[in-house]
Write a structure and sequence with these properties.
Immunoglobulin-like, 4 domains, 5-stranded mixed beta sheet, 3 helices, 31 strands, 13% helix
C-alpha cells in the first residue's frame, strides 16, 4: 500500500462504510501496510487503526435500534371469557393492565353473537393503568358459540395474544342486557344465583328512610338478585327477597331510597341507577316500612371486573394472612414487608389504615367476640394481641 493509499484509508467515511465487513477489510489492508513500513509509519498506523476501530464502535452503536428500557408486558384479567349456558344476554369485562412501562396497542373485533360494547380499537396505557373491554353475549338461537379477541401491543414481552370467548344457549335469548349476580369478597370466595332480572313495573316515588333498629315482625331480607355488579354498568332492577314486606315498604340502596314495586309479602323490586354503582366496594341494601320498621342490611358488591353471576375486585396488597371481622365488616391483613397489619374495608374496596405489629407478622386470627386480633411474629418467635378496632397492642411477646 502506497502512502497515498494509506492516507486515503484515514479519510472520513460514510455511514455505510462503517459496516463490519467494510471495517474488517480496511483494517486488514492497513495492518499489512504497517508491517511493510518503517518505525514511524508503524506508530502512526497503529494509532490510526485504534482511532478507526473506536470510531467504528461508536458509529455501530449509533446504528443499533434502542430497545425499550426495562421489561413491559400487557396483562389480561381474566385470560378467557366463558359465559356458560345463558338464558338472557350477558356481558363480561376484561381488564388489560400495563405492567413495567407504558404500552400502546389495539383490541380487535369479535364475531357474532359476541359483541364488544366498550374498549375496542386503539389504546395507550401508562404503567399500572388499565383498559376495560366489555363483551356482550346474546345468541340468536340454540347452540355452542366460540370466538376470540386479538390483542396487539408494543410490549417487550407477551406483545400479542388472543382472549378466547365461549358460550352456549338452548334457545334465542332476550336482547336486554343482564347484570352480574354473584358476590365476591377479597378472599375470592363467592356464592351465586342466576335468575332473570324482572321487567320494570310502575313504582312509587321514594320517601326518606327510617334509621331505627329492626323491630320484631318487621321486614327482613334473605337474598338479593342480582347480588353484585361491575362498575360502570347500566341501570337495572334489583329483586329483594325476604319476609314481612308491605305495600308501603321501600328499598334503600346504600342509604338512599329507590323507587320500589311491591310484588308480594316476600318480594320487592327496586330501580337502581347507574350512578349507584359507579364506584367499587360493598353497598348496603335495606328495606324500610314506615313509620319506623327497618330490616337487616344485606351486602351488594360492586367489582372492577367479573362475569355472569359474579364480580371481582383486585387490590394490590402483599400479605401473608387475612381474617374477617364480622362485627365491623373489615378484613385485617398481615404485611411482613413492612411489619404491619393493614385494614381492608370492602365498603370502599381498599386499604384504609395500617399499624406496626412487630417483626415479621405472619398468621393472624380474631377472637370469637371480635374484640382482639392475635398476630404471630416470625421475627420475634412470639404472639402479639391487638385490641380492636384501634389495633392497640394489648399483650406482646407471649
Amino acid at each position: 500500500m502506497s502512502a497515498a493509499e494509506f492516507d486515503k484509508e484515514l479519510a472520513p467515511r460514510t455511514t455505510s462504510e462503517y459496516s463490519p465487513p467494510a471495517q474488517n477489510a480496511r483494517l486488514t489492508s492497513m495492518l499489512r501496510a504497517i508491517n511493510e513500513g518503517n518505525g514511524l509509519r508503524r506508530k502512526v498506523g497503529l494509532f490510526a487503526i485504534l482511532l478507526l476501530a473506536t470510531t467504528a464502535i461508536v458509529r455501530g452503536a449509533e446504528s443499533v435500534p434502542q430497545a425499550r428500557s426495562g421489561k413491559s408486558s400487557l396483562k389480561a384479567s381474566p385470560r378467557s371469557l366463558h359465559f356458560g349456558s345463558v338464558s338472557q344476554a350477558e356481558q363480561i369485562s376484561i381488564n388489560l393492565i400495563a405492567v413495567g412501562g407504558p404500552i400502546s396497542g389495539s383490541v380487535g373485533s369479535v364475531a357474532a353473537p359476541f359483541a364488544i360494547l366498550s374498549g375496542s380499537g386503539a389504546f395507550a396505557l401508562e404503567a399500572g393503568s388499565r383498559q376495560v373491554v366489555t363483551v356482550r353475549f346474546a345468541p340468536g338461537g340454540a347452540g355452542k358459540f366460540h370466538s376470540s379477541i386479538a390483542i396487539t401491543s408494543d410490549a417487550s414481552q407477551r406483545q400479542n395474544f388472543n382472549v378466547a370467548l365461549s358460550g352456549s344457549a338452548r334457545r334465542a335469548v332476550p336482547t336486554a342486557t343482564s347484570t352480574p349476580k354473584r358476590t365476591a369478597t377479597a378472599t375470592r370466595t363467592a356464592t351465586a344465583t342466576r335468575t332473570s332480572t324482572p321487567a320494570p313495573t310502575p313504582s312509587r316515588s321514594p320517601t326518606p328512610t327510617a334509621t331505627s333498629t329492626p323491630a320484631v315482625g318487621g321486614p327482613s331480607i334473605s337474598s338479593l338478585t342480582p347480588s353484585s355488579a361491575i362498575v360502570g354498568y347500566d341501570a337495572f332492577i334489583l329483586t329483594v327477597n325476604g319476609t314481612n314486606f308491605k305495600t308501603t315498604s321501600l328499598v334503600n340502596f346504600n342509604g338512599v331510597a329507590r323507587p320500589t314495586t311491591f310484588i308480594s309479602s316476600t318480594q320487592l323490586s327496586a330501580s337502581i341507577l347507574a350512578s349507584d354503582i359507579q364506584n367499587v366496594g360493598a353497598k348496603q341494601v335495606g328495606v324500610a316500612t314506615p313509620p319506623s320498621s327497618i330490616s337487616n342490611a344485606s351486602t351488594f358488591f360492586v367489582g372492577s371486573s367479573g362475569g355472569p353471576g359474579f364480580a371481582l375486585l383486585e387490590i394490590d396488597q402483599s400479605s401473608k394472612d387475612l381474617v374477617f371481622d364480622s362485627v365491623r365488616g373489615l378484613i385485617y391483613v398481615s404485611v411482613p414487608t413492612d411489619n404491619s397489619v393493614a385494614v381492608l374495608d370492602p365498603a370502599i374496596g381498599g386499604i384504609t389504615s395500617s399499624r406496626f405489629a412487630g417483626s415479621g407478622p405472619d398468621v393472624i386470627t380474631i377472637s370469637d367476640d371480635c374484640k382482639y386480633l392475635y398476630t404471630g411474629l416470625d421475627g420475634a418467635a412470639s404472639v402479639e394481641r391487638l385490641t380492636l378496632p384501634s389495633l392497640t397492642p394489648d399483650l406482646a411477646g407471649c
